[in-house]
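ok so I'm stuck.
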Amino acid sequence: MATATVRKHLTDIKEWQKLGEANIFPPGSRLELIDGEIFEMAPIGFNHSGHVYV
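replied:
not stuck anymore, here's the structure
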């Protein structure tokens, strides 16, 4: 049985901005770029939302 190799593509801020400009991510996506990796952020909970000013 063969195993699949997972490859990671790290990005930088310039590529991240181009991805956003190209509308690669769905509207309302909660994403964060950390050390070249794109992470999906959890929704803001009730306690947190009471301390965030938009």
